[in-house]
Every structure is written in structure tokens, then in C-alpha cells.
């Protein structure tokens, strides 16, 4: 029986092979793994998916899919053994943040040329696709200008003609101002072909063009205005540096774009949970249904393969859904910047006279503050996903002045006068030098996904990465108005942001200063990728990260001053008081600590203002001039 | 038993082959460079004292002062970076040949001087055998003198005199002057166990700057401090506004009494 089967199969195979070999069009078959240009631009769906690929190339420096970038600048400490070096390295390498992605620019240029020439697409589709591609190109030039200064503006895909001399392809760098002008003009042109629809939040819209103009023009303006503070950061050809005379022009452009967006009335500040402003601020970043504030975000979707691991990486260790998390530890440096509700910069009170300040509840030390503190941080004594985050560093025994703690998560020890062991440290730490524990006493809350499973490797999260939001536009507007001398108007817009954070007393126009503007951006836009580029454009980065070690007292004294050094990460650790029979038993004290892994003071050198252009780029194109001070 | 001996033969053969491959690697196309290029960066013959070129192997030369050597005629051009030691000296092993030496603008607490031969900041360098050369530069400031005394209670005091070298329109202000003390002879703004700075605006007399810093008793888990060592190294540095690299005095060994 078996034999017969085998023969039959062999025969069938033979026939099959014969049939295959006889096929006439064998050499002219269409490839099954590649789509041709005609096919792609012959259908709306395929042209759209090619565009989606271009959206994928959008560049972010700090982003939720690259958590570690947030830990370079003392906004946060990296609680992962492999990244402690970030708190131990003094200088930022000159080639950090460099970007020269002309392969991406070329892909966009090819897309624009082919899509514009396509005959099978509707005019409306074509127009929108091309406008979106041009938007992405403008966005990328803006990104390159932020990091490299003036770069060559290439708007068509060039082809080499194999004549042995490639010099006609070599283009010198444009001026820094020219790149900003190009970005602003492109956005002006394409916004008329893009939908004016606030519900479109992961593709280009008219609102997004205005928001990007608002930001880009503000960058150009502040480089022009504050360039005087770093006279060495210029190039004679204008590739770096914008003349101070152009500052007002750019502030005006930024102001007009912001104002147009505000007046359109299509966006508003997120205010779905007015009863709990901290929770409201946190939801702004993860609520994807009818979110009126988000202008542009990178989107994710569960079970699609396109998910992100921010919550996985940063979930409180005590309630983690995997044996990891807790990587980003926001610092005391940042926490200190959140004002008390009387509009004052108030340090956390850890001392009372000669002794410690005692608090009834663990979270009481954070009471009466800017709601954005609890909206941005996971604080000791709070909950995440409905469970206690369990952050406390040990027991403080006033009788002996000793600390009783353990070096493992939730570790046990015996308290004096007891005959059994019990938990003496939180399951989230803080434990110095133990990765994933809250080594600063804090975890991050912004962008954290409260959904079940978001902390599992196999599920992860579909919370989006917000790139542009209405709140930032209001701050841009306030800054532009302030710089143009209209403090009244600046106060109006900055107060809208502050009211949402729970402040009941408005700032008066005279209270609006440069320091105030800088401060408000730091607390509102923390963990949204602004810190480095803001400090660069204001030309204060070399002062903020000046390489000099700082003490906790200097840190507290510097809050509210734009140029105050902020070079080393500090933390704030809670301890439970063990003093049986005394009034303070069961209360809480706090200590200011510097994690032992923090050894170096960060230094931003003048050569860091614009990143290195790699030598092979200059070798290929000798017309490219090097960036200064490197 | 027989099987074993066969295996032995096999391993012997493999070993021979391996040795063969090693010896064949010895013949290389080029000999290693062996021309020594050494010297100092100087101002009127006095070496420029700067920061050490970094002790971390992974970040060698990082953030310290360097100059570039370029050589034409080898396809894509890339510089050879030569880093300076803290006493302003340098040394490099190179092939003989024609080089161009450039101190990149913004490097070091000084300006480079235009070369008389090229009329630019490019210095032609012809190597044919070992060469020692001092490169003259124009510092913004020089620390002329720095005397150190150790008082009671392990306080190091410095009396320094600084002179302004560039006084024309390229002149720059002093951001701060600092005293740095370390336990090893590598001393700068990053490598120190005690330091004290005075802001440029607070300096009344450049020729009479006094600073003092107290050496801690015990730090880093009791490994460093006066409890463990009775001598230290000190130097004074000047941070110039708008210039990344500082200029320093000589490093002086100070002993506790």
C-alpha cells in the first residue's frame, strides 16, 4: 500500500515540475516581493502606505520609545545598571544629537516627484499626499537646523550621471536663517492643502503647520536675540547664527502663527477631570478619545506590532507586571520647580528647627503644590493603577537616630523591641545603586498607561507620543508676546496654563520675566523633549550645565533662575518613623540625597551647541564647513 | 588506544596549521609608524598648562585640547588627532611624510598664530626622522605664579598672579579663577577632591588672587583624604568667558605638616 502512494506522489511531482518548466512567461513574471512605482502610485491605498513609511521616518530626540535619552540632563536619573554612566560622564560628546539624514530627504523628494506625476490618483488625494510629504520634509529640515545649524536645502532627488566628476552634486550649507525661512515658507504653502480638522491627530493638518511655525519661528527668533550671549557660536558664512536684527521679525511670525491657531478655536486645553487636576494633567497624555489638546502625535496600536514600552520600562517596581520597570527616576531638581499654590518657589521642608519635619501621611510633603507635580511624577505615597507604589527608604528610629533598612526590594529586618522580622523598605525602593528602584524617590507618570497589561512585554501600550499640543502653543505665544514687549498679553496666555495646574492667583504682567517663561516651560513640558533644544536656543545650556558640582542648597537657591546650574541629580527619600509610644510614631520624615551613582557634574561645551558633522560627509563634499568650537 | 593516537596526530596537524597561520600574519604590508613627533604648546617658551587628556580609556582625550594633522593624497581625508598632556606636551608616532598641522578654532585657552609660511593657521610639517617642535600660541591669560601653603586644619591656600595676554578687541573676560586640589598629580576642574572658585567680577587685582580650600578628612568610603595621605597636588586655573578649556598653573605637590 505504502509503495503505491510513494509512486503516486513521485509521478505527481514529476508532472508538476514539467508543467512549471513549460510556463511560457517564466522570464517575464512580475516580482512578488517588490511593488513597482506604477503599482504604488496606481492606487490610493498603496500611495498612502508609502506615505505612512515617510511618517515613520519623523525624527525625535527624546521620545517615549527611547527612554534613556531623558536621563542625560538631570531632569531624570537612569535607574538601570547599564546606563549609570550617564550620571558619571562630565562632557557631552560633540557628535551627540547629530543628524544628517539626507537618505530620508531623498526618499521624500522622490515621493513628491512621483506622487505629483501620478495619473491614476484623484487630484484631492494627490494634493493632500504631496502636502503631507512636503510637511514631513519641512519638519526634518527643522530638526536638522535645531541640531546642526544651516544645512544644504535639497528639494529634488539628484542623480549621478557617471561622468567621473560628482562635484555638481555637492551643495554648500545654507545659512541657518535660510533653513528656518524655508521651513516657515513650506508650512505656509502646504497648510492650504491640508485638512483643517482637529480630530486628525496623527497626520499633518493645518493646525499642525501653524503649531510648527509657532515653534520654529520662536527658535529662530531666540537664536537671533540670545546669540549675543555666546559670540563664539557663529560661523562667518551665517551657517551658524542669525543676525540680532531679525529677532523681532521671527517673534512676530511665531506670534501670528500661534494666534491664528488660538483664534481658530479648534483646539483647547484638556480639562475632562476638573475635580482632580493632577489626574487631569496625566490623562492629557494617554487619553486618545476626543482629546482637544493634542495637535500631532505618533500613534500606536495594540496587537498591531506597533506598540511602545514606556510603561513597561518605567512602571513602579512594586506593582510591575514584569520583573523590571522603574528606569526613569525624575529628580528632586525638577520636583523643586513645581511651585506652591501661592505662586512661590518653596523648597520641600525636610527640617524643622534642628530636627526633622514630621508628616502625618507620606504624601503630605507634596500638598498644596502645582498639580502638574503629581501629574508628571509618581510620588511616594501615591497610587498607580489603583495600587500603592510603595516607595519608602526605611525606618527612622529617633531614639537611636538610626536608619533600619534593607538592600532588597521589600526586604525585611527586625526593629528594636520586636521579636520578628518585617518589611523595612518599599518594594519600589529607594535603594541606592539597585536598578529599577526609585533611586531619587520618584518615578515618572507622564505618558504612563494605566491600562492593565501595559507593563507586560507581550502586550505593552498604545499610548501615543505627543509631539505638538495646544499647551505648548500657548507658551510659545506667551514667550513671543513677552519678547515683543507685550507683557499684558503674555500674562493672559501663561495664566491659562497655570489655572489648569490649579493656581487661583494669576501672575501679573510685571511678574512675567524671562526666568518665568523658562520656568513655566520646564514644568509644563517636562519629558516632552524640549529641555535640550530650549536651553540651546536661549543660549543658556553652557550655563545650566557648567560642569561645576552643586549642593542641594545651591539647587534650592537656583529654582526659578533660568541660568542656575543644574548639573547633578538629587533625590528625596521618605522614611517611616518608628518610635513606639511617642507622638511621632508612624509619621514620615524626608531626607535629601544624591544617589551614589551620580558622580560627575554635566558640562555642555560651546562645541555642543551644534553637533559634529562627520568627517566622511565633509570628505564627500568639501564645500561643507565644520561647526564651531569642536 | 589506536583511536587516541589518531586523534593526537590530528591535533598535532591542527596545531601545525594554526602556527602556520600565525606566522603568515607576521608579514604585513607596512611597518608600524615609528617616527616620533614630540614637543610642547608654548607661549614665549613657557608651556601652556591645560587639563589632562582624560583618564578614562573609553573616552581617551575626551574634552581635552588637541590639534589635527592632515595628510594629502590618501583618498578621503580625515585628521589624526593629537591630544595634549596637562603640561602642554604632546607626542605622536607617525610615518615620515608631509603633514599639515592645524589647531582647530575654539580649541584650548588660546588663539593660534598665523604661520608665516602659509599665511594662515596651517603649519606645514615635514617629518623625516624624529622631530621635536614647540608650537607657539597666543593665550588669553597666563598664570604667572601660584604659590601654595598648607595651613592648620588641612586648608590649602593659594596666592596666584594672572596676566592678561590678549588685550585688543579679541580679549575676553575671566569667568572665574579656581583652586583645585587632588590626591594624585592629575588635577583640573573635573579631577579634584577640593576646590574653591572666585568669580571674575570679584577679583580686584589680577596679580594678587588668593583662594583657599579645605581638604576633606575622609571621602569615597574612607579611601581618600588627610586620614590616608599626607601629600596632595594643587594648581590654579582660569576659566575664560566664552572659552571651554581652562588655563592652569604648574602642578605643585603640597605636604601636610
UniProtKB/TrEMBL annotation, chain A:
Keywords noted in UniProt: Cell outer membrane, Membrane, Signal
Stretches assigned to the RagB/SusD domain: 292-628
Domain of life of the native organism: Bacteria
Statement: the UniProt record of this protein carries the keyword Signal: yes
Pfam families named among the record's database cross-references: SusD-like_3, SusD_RagB
Domain SusD-like N-terminal: 26-216
Location relative to the cell: Cell outer membrane
Keyword Calcium appears in the UniProt entry: no
InterPro entries cross-referenced by the UniProt entry: SusD-like_N, SusD_RagB_dom, TPR-like_helical_dom_sf
Any GO CC annotation of this UniProt entry: cell outer membrane
SUPFAM superfamilies per UniProt: TPR-like
Entry similarity comment: Belongs to the SusD family.
The protein, known as: RagB/SusD family nutrient uptake outer membrane protein
Species of provenance: Arachidicoccus ginsenosidivorans
